[in-house]
Each structure stands twice: as C-alpha cells, then as structure tokens.
C-alpha cells in the first residue's frame, strides 16, 4: 500500500511540476509546487532531493509524449522528406493551441542557463533526439550534408517554437515552407 501512495504522491508532484514549470517557468517555489500537487514538502523531499530533481524528472517523464506528438509513426510509405515535414506540420498545429507556450525543453535550457543542472541534461537529450531524428531522415532522403541540415532544421524548429510560444509569431505554414526550402536545397527526397 505504501508503494501505491508514494507513486500517487510522485505522480501528483510530477504532474504539478510539468504544469507549473511550463506555464510559469522554472523559478516557481517549492511551496507553490507542493500546494498545487497537494503534497507536503516533507513528502516531496522523501521522493526527491531537491526541486531541481523534480524539474528533471518532470521533463524526463514528458519525453515519450513529446517524441510521439512530434514524430509519430507514420505509414511505411512515407518518404524521409514527408517524415521531416510532418514534424513541422505538427508543430504548427500545436502552436495554434491557446495553451501553447513553446517547447518545454528549450524553455528549460534557456531559463536555467546552467549546463550542469539535472534538468538541462534531460532537455539537451530531448533536443539531441530531435536533431537525430532529422539527421537520420535527411540521410535516408539523400541529403548532401545530413548533419548540417539537421542543425538547420533544429534552428527553424526551436526558433519557431520560441516565437510562437511567446505569441510574437503565428506559424500558419511558415515552418513547413522554410523546412521545405531547406530540404530542397539539400536534395532530400
């Protein structure tokens, strides 16, 4: 029974952390986090050594959903080019949602500014996963320089995420058109 209670407390903390850190940023206090989760600070510290660990765990917990949302399995008939463009189509769709505030992993990296922070490591892993996804499909599609193209696509993705999350830009086909030009210039089929 105690395991179930701890799992429930842990889940509530991670759910609250994901919501608060995404909505309000990483500077939220332990009191606000625990109040939102409906758990005591003592319970939090029994599960996590620090708020930093809660942030890292909440980001790690989001990674599978992030990957599935942006790069779901598409039919085998999809070309590498279609797989890459699908990511940008999904980004544009997500960015139109009222609650969208950009990529949570990019936001964590920008806000923390500490490459040694445990959450920075998780966020970098998510960004490396995305770059690897782009690179793999760029290679499969015949890109002249798959690594360079992957880096360029990451700049488009992260820049679009940040600008649309800050509500200074609506994407409306902009990222798909930009990615298409990069794919054309790189020879990706």
Automatic annotation (TrEMBL):
PROSITE patterns: HTH_TETR_2 (PS50977)
Pfam family, one: TetR_N
The UniProt record lists the keyword DNA-binding: yes
Domain HTH tetR-type: 7-66
Coiled coil: none
Transmembrane regions listed in the UniProt entry: none
The entry's DNA-binding region: 29-48
Listed InterPro entries: Homeodomain-like_sf, HTH_TetR, Tet_transcr_reg_TetR-rel_C_sf
Keyword Transcription regulation part of the UniProt annotation: yes
Domain of life: Bacteria
Keywords on record: DNA-binding, Transcription, Transcription regulation
Designated name of the protein: TetR/AcrR family transcriptional regulator
